[in-house]
Every structure is written in C-alpha cells, then in structure tokens.
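Handout, section 4.2: multi-component inputs.
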Amino acid sequence: MSFDIEAVLNDMLAAVNNSVDADWDDIKGYAKQILENEKDTVKDLAEQRLRGELTEEELKSELEDEKDTVEAEFNALQVMTEAMAQKAANAVIDVIFKAIKAAI
Amino acid sequence: MKVWMLQRKLVSLILLNILLAASLGGCAIRLVADYDATIAEEVIRVSKEVDIFYGKLLETEYEERSYEKLKEKYIAIEADIRALVVQNKARPLNEESISIAEATLEKWIKYKEKHKENWKKYSLPDGDRNKIEASNIYKDNQIKNHRKRFNRLFTAMSVAEGAKKLESE
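Output:
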C-alpha cells in the first residue's frame, strides 16, 4: 500500500483551483453589477428629489426599499459563494477517496 | 515485522471502512438547495408578468391609472409571487432564496397598497383638501423606479437559482 500525501495534497489544491476559477469570475461580475445598480439608483433618486418628482417621504421610502433590494442581491451572491464552496469541497473529497481507493 | 504487518492491516481496514461509509452514506457536502428548473422558469415568467404590468401602466393616461381596474391583476401577480415564496420554503438549505422571494412579495404588496391609497385620494370629491391630482395616482418616475426594482429582485432570484446548478458535480 502506498499513500503519497504530498501528491494527494497537490491534487486537492488543483481540484480546488479548477473548481473555483470559473465561479469566482461570475461572483466578481455579479458583485460589480450590484454595486453599479446601487450607485445608479441612489443617484437617480437624488436627482428625482431635486427635480421635485419625489417628496421627502417618497424618497425615504424608496431608499428603504433600495436597502432591502441590495440585501436581496447580496443574498444571491451568498448563494453563489456557497455553491462555489460546495463544488470545491466535494472536488477535494473526490480526490481523497480516489487516492484512498488507489492506496488500498 | 509482525507489528508492521498488523499496523498495515489496521490502516487498510480503517480506509476501507471510510470508503464503505462514504459510498453507502453518499458522502458529499451540501451547502445549497438542489437546482429546480421549474422554479427557475417560474421566476422568469412572473418577472415578465410584473414587467408587462408596469409597462402597460406607464402607457396609461394618468386618469385611467385606476386601482380598481387593476385590482384583479394585482391579486393574480401577488399570488404568483407568494407561490414562489412557498416553493422556496419547501426546500432545505434555501434561506437566501426564501429571503429574496419574501422581499419581492413585500414590495409588491407595499406598492399595491400605495396605489390603492392614492386612488382613493384621487376619488375624493372636488374641494376635499386630501384629494390628489391624477398625475399623483401612480407617478411616471415611481412606475419606472418600481419596475427597475422588481427587475433587480427577480434577477437576484434567478441568479440564486442558477448558482445551484453545480454542473461540474
């Protein structure tokens, strides 16, 4: 029986990198989109208030709703992150079990 | 020599047990709910329904933005969004998607109630100091604000569902 722990560790690292790479780009892209949405919306609301298109009460309500919307978007980001972690963790488990199976 | 052979047998036995347990127990880490194609499609359908609702409202003359005329449509869409909440609640490891769906439902009800309130104020007799102008029943800029907001909320719902696909597994 042979179990090369160094080789297994390298395989585990490669599995994580391969798993995470594509997902990480998607997560960065969506995070950037969330921040741009937020910036554009708050600017737009402020301009509407300045033009008199929104009352003070309406602006306050819109900003509260904006907070909830951004929170929802970050919840979606959280799912993306958890899914990425799940894929990576299961890729690592797969490597370990294949190594153990080969060693026995 | 005998001790070494015993140790080797013990390690093999332990590793074999781990493998057996893993294959029998289906050992895999789960952090998110399984992907549901039906829900993913329903999110898109309801998102389109809401977008069309606001698109039509924007094209309607101020005086015609009657809550009463739109009441049935409001109720139908509310039911569709609530169904998304229920479907998401039925799945384990799905807290974030539940939260997004609940936020969407909360906003729909809030804007519906505000439209209802404004329509009542518009419907007051002339001279009533609480009466509002037709242009304030549901202002153009507010329709656009809310349309964009729902677009973002449904996008968040769709992104969250899509993330559960986990194609590489």
